[in-house]
Amino acid sequence: MAETPLARLESQIAFLNEADKLKAIVRGTKLCDDHRYENSAEHSWHLTLYALVLRDHAEPGVDIDLVIKMLILHDLVEIDAGDNPIFGDHDTAQMEALEKAAADRIFGLLPNDLRDELRAIWEEFEAAETPSARFAKSLDRFQPPMQNLQSGGGSWTDFEVTEEQIHARVGSKIAIGAPTLWDYARARIAEFFASRPSV
Amino acid sequence: MAETPLARLESQIAFLNEADKLKAIVRGTKLCDDHRYENSAEHSWHLTLYALVLRDHAEPGVDIDLVIKMLILHDLVEIDAGDNPIFGDHDTAQMEALEKAAADRIFGLLPNDLRDELRAIWEEFEAAETPSARFAKSLDRFQPPMQNLQSGGGSWTDFEVTEEQIHARVGSKIAIGAPTLWDYARARIAEFFASRPSV
User: Fold this and answer.
1) How far is CA A47 from the centre of its chain?
2) Which end of chain A has the lower number of beta carbons within 10 A, N or C?
3) Which of B167, B114, B122, B177 is nearest to B145 (CA)?
4) Which of 74-103 (A) contact B at CB < 8 A?
5) ipTM of the complex, rounded to two decimals
6) What tens digit of pLDDT does each residue of A163-198 get?
7) Boundaries of each HD domain copy (chains A, B) (predicted)?
């Protein structure tokens, strides 16, 4: 049976209403003013702005409009699967299964053509194999240290993170898609840990 | 004096850190679950998703990638100028002056080329003269009624808004850039007011 224009629009609105729940998913990173933790919706917005402003740090072959679309969509699965702080412990295979089921349900609210198109953008981001996906992933890892540096430690303090752990868990991932941003972050992180009173 | 790469990147980061403050600007619209008011950062994210999902309601000549950029940037001036609920009273000329000064300061944190480019996108949105700007403005007006319908009244209840006021202040603006979305919203708003117990 052919989809009516009204049924199509109702599916689109149902998806957009469901997406509103991303505003209630709390991340491990604090706002720059250390006042509260950020949620995944405002984080996603901030990342699209990172992409707009830092695109001169993207490697050749990056399509910045596609990067922005990836960043708009990248955390929607957290509505069902939750956020996993990068310095927390979690079962990677289990998380991937949860996120796949979430993508099935959430993108499945859309009309089929949009479901397939947006799901493909999310899958490309997740696979991290194209230049655009690698740059998007790098920005997703680069923003939290920038917030932590502003807020005086943020999630590094909460999770008792060492400089070595940041290099291993965050640095390697930033460096893949945005090496010049990691050079900058590494230097500022070194200054931060050098000047921090020992705990 | 030529800008060094480090000075350029520091300007870009200073702008992105300043933009973080948009997460603390509270709007007049509630989340769909009526739990709290939304902030302008998460609202901006939600609108970029509206653009991605509802682009089949855009008129010919709309560049959806540009619409998304407009929506990422459109509320940044609220960091200095604050949010103005559409059913509140405010001096339009005074608001425009405040927002212009805010744009000078906030976009002025960026390197000159990015300052000029992003400022131009924001100016195009504000002027609402191009098809892309009109569609972006329409989405900005279309999302709050969708939230209010979900939350059982939301800002309409808070501001004691009538159906006629919605038509005048919101409907006319949605209809300019997205007439089919206004047809849909108008019908759902009529149902809502017809079924609401009189107060």
Assistant:
1) 7
2) N
3) B167
4) none
5) 0.95
6) 999 999 999 999 999 999 999 999 999 999 999 866
7) 19-182
